[in-house]
Amino acid sequence: VEDLLTPHSCVCRTEEGRLVEGLHSSSLETVIPRGGSERIMVVLGEHRGKVGRILERDPERGRALVQLGRPGAPQVLSLPYDSICHYLGGGDDE
């Protein structure tokens, strides 16, 4: 996802580098990183926009235990997979 046009549509970049505009959020699939050190972003709910890391996965329930915020003041939450996605953005905005 490159940009949000509305709360329900976005611009996405394909693996080939092509931009696709006006995709509805229901057309997208959430990608959960497999590695434990990779970052995620919360995309739904009150913590939307926060960046963190997955501590544990519960594939049977479709949930992950995630740590949001900086190591000195972490917030640990159990969130549904649909509320988080793999975060590839830059910066240290956890």
Outline:
The chain has 94 residues and is mostly beta strands. The protein has 2 domains: 29 residues, no CATH class; 48 residues, SH3 type barrels. The chain contains no helices and 8 strands.
Structure characterization notes:
Belongs to the MOS2 family. InterPro entries: GPKOW_KOW2 (IPR041994), Rib_uL2_dom2 (IPR014722), Spp2-like (IPR045166). The protein is an all-beta fold and 94 residues long. The chain folds into two domains: 1-29, no CATH class; 39-86, SH3 type barrels, CATH 2.30.30.30. 0% of the residues lie in helices and 45% in strands. The strands form two sheets. A five-stranded antiparallel sheet has the order 7-6-5-4-8, with no helix packed on it. A three-stranded antiparallel sheet has the order 1-2-3, with no helix packed on it. A hairpin with a 2-residue loop joins strand 1 and strand 2 (9-13).
> What structural class results from the helix and strand content?
mainly beta
**The CATH top-level class label of the largest domain:** Mainly Beta
Strand content: 35-45%
For the termini, the CA-CA separation is 19 Å
- The CATH architecture classification of the largest domain is Roll
CATH fold-level assignment of the largest domain: SH3 type barrels
Number of strands: 8
Q: Topology as H/E string?
A: EEEEEEEE
Percent of residues in helices comes to under 10%
Rg estimate, integer Å = 14 Å
State the helix count: 0
What is the 3D shape?
Answer: globular
Overall pLDDT metric: 82
Largest sheet: 5 strands, antiparallel
Order of strands across the main sheet? 7-6-5-4-8
**Poorly predicted runs:** none
How many structural domains are formed by the residues? 2
